[in-house]
Write a structure and sequence with these properties.
The chain is of the alpha+beta class. It has 13 helices and 39 strands. Strand 1 and strand 2 form a beta hairpin.
C-alpha cells in the first residue's frame, strides 16, 4: 500500500458534472500530444499531416532575419577552409534579433556546392549548442545556410519544400541575411536540418533510426564508387551482412535496437518479394503510401538530386518505431525544376531495377493507380500555374533587393530575374507534359461527400464504446464504378484495413443504385482514435482511383470513441505542479513534476488498475499499481518524472509540460474519473482546486499533500533591502530596493497561496490594488517576502 496523507475535515463527495461536455468531441486530441506537423482540421473531422507553414519562429516564411557570426580569430576563413575535410567547427558568437548566442560552432557544408564555388559564397552549418549545452535558437540547435549553388533564383529549394510538405516530410525553409565579422555576406536560403528536431515535428517520436543515403570517406568527401543509378544506395538488397549497408548509408541518429538489421530487413522485403506478394508483405516494412507520395513529388518537380535521379544519395530514410516501417524523406532541393528536365516521364526510372522503390512498387497495379492519383493531386494543387506564379512573385519581391545588393552572390542579378521566369515556365510546361501522359490523363471517379454517423444516425458524432460507426459516400464516374472501398485504422499512425462499401440499400446507404455507398466500421474501446478514408475505383481498363480526402493516407477522416464518465466519484485531481525547481523533492532528492489526488469520500477507494495519462490518444499510458488505495479524505502524490525505475508505485512514465497540457485519471475500464486541462504554469507554484477538492483550479503557493485552503504563512524577511509602502495600502503600493541592473520577478499571493499578481520590475515599481479584496497579502521576490495589508 502507498502512504496516504490523512486530512481531518471531511468534504462531501462530488460528481464531475463537466466531464462529458469536455470529452464530447474529437477536440480532446490536445496539440501538446501531437507532433507539429500532425493536426486536426478546424471542424475536427480530419487528421492532417504536413503543410504547416510557420508564421513565427526561426523559419517564419514572412521574415528575413539578419544573422551575425563573429569569429574571434582574424584568420577565421583559413581555419574554416582547413577544417572542411574533417568537418570540425570553429567557435563564433551568433547574434540574431539582438539575442547573443555564445560559442556556436561554424563550418563549411556541402560537396559540389563547396567544391565548385570559387568565390566566398560558401554554405555554412551552425551548431548552436556546440559549447553551451542545450543552447538553441527558437527551438533549433543545428542550422543550415545554403548558398543556392546551381540556383540563380535563390528560391528553388524553399519553394519546392513548401509545395511538397503537404504530402511528404519536408524541411522548413526561408531566407536570412548573413554577416561575418560585420561584413555583409548576402542572402542565404535558411533550410531546416534533417535531424531529431525535424523527426519530432513529423513523427510521434524521434526514437527511431535515421539514415542518410550518403557516406563520407575518412578524408571528408562523398563516398566513392560507381555511378548514379548503380543500385548501391537505393534500398537495394546487398546481402545479409549489415556491414555492406554501413558502407553505403550514414546512420545519423538512432534510439532503437539493431537499426541496421531493420534496414536490411526492409531492403530484403522490397527486393526479394514477388510482385504478387508485395501488397501483403511490404506494408510491414515500408509506409507504402508515403513512398508513393515521395516518388510522385520528386518526379512532378523533376528533382535531379535525390532518389529518382541519382538513386544512391541525397535522400533520407527513417525507421518509425511506432509502426516498424521505413519512410523515405526528401532532402536537398536546390536543383529541382530545371528547364531541361521538364519533359521527364511520369514514371521516370520505373523500369530500372536499380531503383526498387520505383521498379517494384509501380509494378503492382493497385499501387500504380494510387501513385497516379497522388500525381494528379500534385498537378492540381501544387502545380497550379496561377497559384505558383503568385507565390514565386511573392518570394521574388521578398528577396529582390537583397539579391541585387548581395556582394558575394554566385550569379548576377539579371540571372536571378531571368531564373524566376524559368521557374514559372517550368510549372506550366511540367503540368502540360504530365497531363499529356496517357495514364495520368485517365479520368478517375469523383467523390463528392463522405459522412460518418453513430448508431443514432447523428452525423460526425463519435460512437460509444464498442458500437459500430457508419460511413456513407457519394461517388460518380463517367466510366462507371468498379468498386468503392473504405480504409480504416486505429491510432494516430499505422497501416489501414480495407473493407468494401455497397450501394445496395442494405448498408445504411439509402436506396439501392442511388450513387451513395455505405459501410460500417467495427466498434472500439474507449478513447480509441479511428482514421478512415474512401477509395473509388473507376470501371475503365486502368481501374483508375481517387481518394477522399485527396491527401490520404496522411490526410484522413478521424473520430474518437467517446470516453464515458466513471461510476467512481469523489476522487479528483486536486493539485499539480508542472515546473518544480525548489519546492518538493522526491525520494531521490530530485525536484520533479507531481500530481496530487484527493478523496472527497468518507471511505477509502481502491485505485488498483486505474490510469493516469497526459495523452488522450493513449488513455492507458500509466497504470496505477495493484494495491494502491486512497484513504477517506486522504491525499496521494504521484511524481510525473518519466522515471518509473525510481519507484514504480508512484513515478509515472510521463512528465508534465509547463507550457500547458491535459491530465486524466481513468478507472480500470478507461472511463474518466477526472481530468484537467491547464495552460502556462508559473515555476514553483501549484495549480490547485479552491475550494479544496471541489472548486476550479487556480495558481497558488503549493500545499503538497494537504488542504489547498490551508493558510499559508510566509516568514517575512525584515533585513532585506526590498520595502513596500504605504502599508496598509488603499489603491496602490510601491516596491523599492530591487536590483537596479536587472529585472526581478515579483509574485504576490493571498493567505491561501493563490497567485494574485506577478510582474518583473527593475529597481522599483508601483502595484495598483483598487480591485483587490481587502486583507493580508505576501509580496515575494526570490527568497524575500514582505507582508502588505490592503484596506479600502
Amino acid at each position: 500500500m502507498q502512504t496516504i496523507i490523512p486530512r481531518i475535515r471531511i468534504i462531501t463527495r462530488i460528481k464531475i458534472i463537466t466531464l462529458l461536455a469536455l470529452l464530447a468531441s474529437i477536440g480532446i486530441l490536445n496539440a501538446q500530444n501531437l507532433p507539429l506537423e500532425i493536426r486536426l482540421s478546424t471542424d475536427g473531422h480530419r487528421l492532417v499531416t504536413g503543410g504547416v507553414a510557420p508564421q513565427s519562429g526561426f523559419y517564419d516564411s514572412t521574415t528575413i532575419r539578419s544573422v551575425y557570426l563573429d569569429f574571434p580569430q582574424t584568420n577565421y576563413w583559413t581555419l574554416l577552409t582547413q577544417n572542411y575535410q574533417t568537418r570540425t567547427p570553429i567557435p563564433a558568437t551568433m547574434t540574431v534579433d539582438g539575442v547573443v548566442y555564445d560559442s556556436v560552432g561554424v563550418g563549411f557544408k556541402g560537396n559540389t556546392s563547396y567544391m565548385n564555388v570559387q568565390g566566398q559564397k560558401k554554405s555554412f552549418s551552425v551548431d548552436v549548442n556546440y559549447v553551451v549545452d542545450g543552447q538553441d535558437i527558437m527551438g533549433y540547435d543545428n542550422l543550415n545556410f545554403n548558398n543556392a549553388f546551381e540556383d540563380a533564383s535563390f528560391l528553388r529549394e524553399v519553394f519546392y519544400l513548401h509545395q511538397i510538405s503537404k504530402h511528404v516530410p519536408a524541411a522548413k525553409g526561408n531566407f536570412i541575411h548573413l554577416y561575418l565579422n560585420n561584413v555583409d555576406w548576402g542572402i542565404y536560403p535558411n533550410v531546416q536540418q534533417i535531424n531529431k528536431d525535424f523527426l519530432s515535428e513529423w513523427f510521434m517520436s524521434n526514437d527511431g533510426a535515421n539514415w542518410r543515403a550518403y557516406v563520407r570517406t575518412t578524408g571528408g568527401g562523398p563516398g566513392g564508387g560507381g555511378q548514379w543509378g548503380d543500385g548501391t544506395t537505393a534500398l537495394n538488397y546487398l546481402g545479409a551482412d549489415t556491414a555492406l549497408y554501413q558502407a553505403k548509408y550514414s546512420l545519423k541518429s538512432s534510439d532503437t535496437d539493431d537499426p541496421w538489421t531493420k534496414l536490411v530487413a526492409g531492403c530484403n522485403a522490397l527486393n526479394n518479394t514477388s510482385t504478387a506478394n508485395l501488397p501483403t508483405v511490404l506494408p510491414n516494412y515500408f509506409d507504402v503510401d508515403r513512398v508513393l507520395w515521395f516518388l510522385a513529388s520528386e518526379i512532378a518537380f523533376s528533382d535531379d538530386d535525390s532518389y529518382v535521379y541519382k538513386g544512391k544519395m541525397d535522400y533520407y530514410v527513417y525507421y518509425e518505431p511506432e509502426t516498424g516501417r521505413l519512410v523515405p524523406q526528401e532532402f536537398d532541393g536546390n536543383s529541382v525544376m530545371k528547364a531541361n528536365a521538364a519533359n521527364w516521364n511520369a514514371f521516370y526510372n520505373a523500369t530500372n531495377a536499380n531503383y526498387p522503390l520505383l521498379n517494384k512498387l509501380l509494378a503492382v497495379p493497385a499501387w500504380r493507380q494510387r501513385y497516379l492519383a497522388h500525381m494528379r493531386t500534385i498537378i492540381t494543387e501544387e502545380l497550379d500555374v496561377t497559384k505558383c506564379n503568385a507565390m514565386l512573385d511573392n518570394y521574388k519581391a521578398q528577396i529582390d533587393a537583397l539579391v541585387n545588393a548581395d556582394p558575394k552572390k554566385i550569379y548576377t542579378y539579371n540571372q536571378f530575374v531571368s531564373e524566376i521566369t524559368v521557374l514559372k515556365n517550368f510549372v506550366n510546361t511540367r503540368r502540360t507534359n504530365l497531363l499529356a501522359n496517357t495514364e495520368v490523363a485517365q479520368v478517375a471517379p469523383v467523390i463528392t461527400t463522405v459522412i460518418q454517423y453513430n448508431t443514432s444516425n447523428q452525423a460526425w458524432t463519435a460512437p460509444l464504446p464498442m458500437e459500430a460507426a457508419n460511413v456513407t459516400t457519394t461517388v460518380t464516374s463517367t466510366s462507371g464504378i468498379n468498386a468503392v472501398n473504405l480504409y480504416y485504422a486505429t491510432g494516430v499512425v499505422g497501416n489501414f484495413t480495407k473493407t468494401t462499401m455497397y450501394d445496395d440499400g442494405a448498408h445504411n446507404d439509402g436506396t439501392s443504385g442511388d450513387g451513395t455507398y455505405g459501410a460500417s466500421l467495427p466498434g472500439q474501446i474507449t478513447g480509441t482514435y479511428v482514421r478512415f478514408y474512401v477509395e473509388a475505383v473507376a470501371n475503365n481498363a486502368a481501374l483508375s482511383v481517387s481518394y477522399s480526402p485527396v491527401g490520404a493516407e496522411h490526410d484522413v477522416y478521424v473520430y474518437q470513441i467517446a470516453p464515458v464518465g466513471s461510476t467512481v466519484t469523489g476522487v479528483v485531481i486536486n493539485e499539480l505542479m508542472a515546473s518544480n525547481s525548489v519546492t518538493e523533492m522526491d525520494e531521490a532528492d530530485e525536484y520533479e513534476d507531481w500530481i496530487e489526488l484527493h478523496n472527497n469520500n468518507n471511505f477509502a477507494v481502491d485505485l488498483s488498475g486505474f490510469y493516469l495519462t497526459d495523452n488522450p490518444a493513449n488513455l492507458d499510458k500509466w497504470e496505477i499499481p495493484q494495491g494502491t488505495s486512497i484513504a477517506a479524505d486522504g491525499y496521494l502524490i504521484f511524481w510525473a518524472d518519466e522515471d518509473s525505475a525510481q519507484g514504480p508505485a508512484n513515478h509515472t512514465n510521463f512528465k508534465l509540460s509547463a507550457a500547458g497540457e491535459v491530465v486524466y485519471l481513468l478507472d480500470a475500464s478507461l472511463a474518466i474519473v477526472d481530468s484537467i486541462t491547464f495552460g502556462q504554469q508559473t515555476a514553483d507554484m501549484g495549480f490547485a482546486r479552491i475550494p479544496n477538492g471541489t472548486g476550479p483550479f487556480v495558481i497558488k503557493t503549493p500545499t503538497f499533500g494537504e488542504d489547498n485552503e490551508k493558510t499559508v504563512g510566509l516568514a517575512e524577511d525584515a533585513a532585506s533591502a526590498m520595502a513596500v509602502f504605504p502599508n496598509p495600502s488603499n489603491s496602490y503600493f510601491r516596491i523599492v530596493g530591487l536590483d537596479e541592473a536587472k529585472g526581478q520577478k515579483i509574485e504576490i499571493t493571498n493567505t491561501v497561496g493563490q497567485l494574485i499578481h506577478t510582474e518583473t520590475l527593475t529597481g522599483q515599481g508601483t502595484i495598483y490594488t483598487s480591485n483587490w479584496p481587502t486583507g493580508l497579502y505576501f509580496v515575494r521576490c526570490n527568497n524575500t517576502v514582505k507582508k502588505i495589508v490592503i484596506s479600502h
